[in-house]
């Protein structure tokens, strides 16, 4: 176990070096940095006993043939954001290789086929829509999607062709994959704050994004008495405060952000004509998002004098993780004596795409100070250990069909 962790630590550093560009880390998809990273991962997969291949969008797979055709898939994405860190994505691939390798050394060939995957373009740091690799896996990437262009006007199709991945035919949806498991850094501070080493993800949060406009009567700030005003600014402020209080009452189950408030015309000596504010509400349960909508509607009735108008720009339902898998992970974590908790993921992950078609689960490990998408991203090896052990135990049971208790590890 110590040797495996040491290898994981060294590999994180080595893989990070492949993404170094102008003194920062940025392994954007279909670039020389990505090519170097993929080559290193491919080498590690082969050293560990996996047979490697790329699909037509550039996902790198390592395959360990089992006695049945059903595939257990595990891994994460190999791209990073611009000026990103060493752990986001990378850790899920490296721990998957380490776990598969250790299990193979101990037990030989798995019963179900194990594949590790280094997915491409999850972050959208080059092609904005992102999740290219995972969308391809479930058949949700169309030829029209390949016409998306990057900042330099290069299309996704051209980028994939230049790397030698795409030859005019998109990969077929993976019907053979029975389960997908992704280990990832939490990218938040809940685990660290609670002194817990493992997060078992229950759902990818759904969201409600939109804006509200409060209307008033524009007038002179000096000559209009307070009782004769229709000022939308205090109304909007009161609304924001009440919505915030409501969100606070939901504990860790929901987050709510008013990120932008604009008063128009926005002059210090003019009572505003209208105020526009944005909202971004996320939760792991649809019932909470429904309650958020009801709360907004209820509050807006209270401010009817300002004829508020709400527009929902984006509404996404939460993607639940496989509940059987959640319970299975909890049982294993209990056996291992690991401190764990259930939590919803506030960030987007490949697991939310793959989870739309395939039984999917996620394991989180703590992020130091909750920081991610930054060169300061860090998770100490002792904070990786419990999550890694859980990933390995899960693969041992699902692919090798060996119970944790069988050989009293
Ligand atoms: Zn990630």
Explain what this protein looks like in three dimensions.
The chain is an alpha+beta fold and 409 residues long. The chain has 2 domains: 2-204 and 319-398, 3-Layer(aba) Sandwich (Aminopeptidase); 206-316, 2-Layer Sandwich (Alpha-Beta Plaits). Helices cover 34% and strands 25% of the residues. The protein is built from 11 helices and 18 strands. The protein has helices at 2-18, 32-47, 90-107, 132-137, 156-162, 190-193, 232-248, 286-302, 323-336, 350-354, 381-398; strands at 20-21, 24-25, 51-54, 60-64, 68-77, 112-119, 177-185, 198-204, 206-215, 219-220, 254-257, 261-264, 270-271, 274-283, 309-316, 319-320, 340-345, 359-365. Strands 3, 4, 5, 6, 7, 8, 16, 17 and 18 form a 9-stranded mixed β-sheet that branches. A hairpin with a 2-residue loop joins β1 and β2 (24-25). The protein is elongated, with a radius of gyration of 24 Å. The site of zinc ion has 6 residues, from loops.
Pick out its properties.
18 strands; 9-stranded mixed sheet; alpha+beta; binds zinc ion; 409 residues; 2 domains; Aminopeptidase; single chain; Alpha-Beta Plaits
Q: Summarize the helix and strand pattern as letters.
A: HEEHEEEHEHHEHEEEHEEEEHEEHEHEH
CATH homologous superfamily classification of the largest domain: Zn peptidases
Terminal residue distance:
11 Å
Count of separate structural domains? 2
- CATH architecture annotation name of the largest domain: 3-Layer(aba) Sandwich
Mean pLDDT: 95
Structural class estimated from helices and strands: alpha+beta
Small molecules in complex? zinc ion
Largest sheet: 9 strands, mixed
The total count of helices amounts to 11
Q: Could you name the CATH topology of the largest domain?
A: Aminopeptidase
